[in-house]
Specification:
Elements lengths: L2 E7 L2 E8 L5 E5 L10 H7 L4 E5 L17 H15 L5 E5 L1 H12 L6 E5 L10 H9 L5 H8 L5 H4 L6 E6 L6 H10 L3 E6 L13 H9 L16
Helix pairs in contact: 1-8, 2-3
Amino acid sequence: MGASMRVTTNGISTYYEVRGKKGPAIIMLHGNGEDHTIFDRAVDYLEQKFVVYLVDSRGHGESSPPVNGEYHYQDLADDLEAFIRKLEIREPIIIGFSDGAISALLFASQHPEVPSRIFACGANTRPETLKGMGMALLKARKKDDPRVKMMLTEPNITADELSKITCPVLVVAGSRDCVKREDSEFIANSVQDGTLCIMKRADHSSYIVHSTRIVDAVFRECNVDPESVQVVYRFAR
């Protein structure tokens, strides 16, 4: 277990945990309807080489909801900016999944000087780029949930916005992802330094949620020798 803490970001009481004692900073951002615990398997390895910040986004996990009850990706990006600024985190690596990846891309386009690298996992630029089954499953969730409404009406990220991102971006998607392949390609081709990574035999979340698969990509991109990391044995969920 890491240290559990809170910080106020734009009127939100943001809960986060810190794992690891030395190395570059990593900020991990979960998806819609989740919390930081989805990264439990990956952080067992990442904390051995990095200082990892696991954040609950507004209205998720142990973080407070917005007063007006509305959710917008720009607010998530603004929360990330406030989090980094208040904790004085320098040149963080940002690993975002789904909603977390969208907010990371928005943040990086508006503050290109801050992140050193981004892993955008399962990001989409428009609601229409979700495949039929993914959209159907989304609509099956509570229709009056404002978090679902956000996903049905946002984001609307343009090539011009993405072109402002200057740090290396690894765009990650599952081979059976609910995000259309052409949208993942669009992101990778629109940022200044983008690479596309397709996880074989994976859907939208299986390589992230309670999984270690993303660790290999992080170690590869950050030049970490996997042989220098201890194996962590825990029962899979």
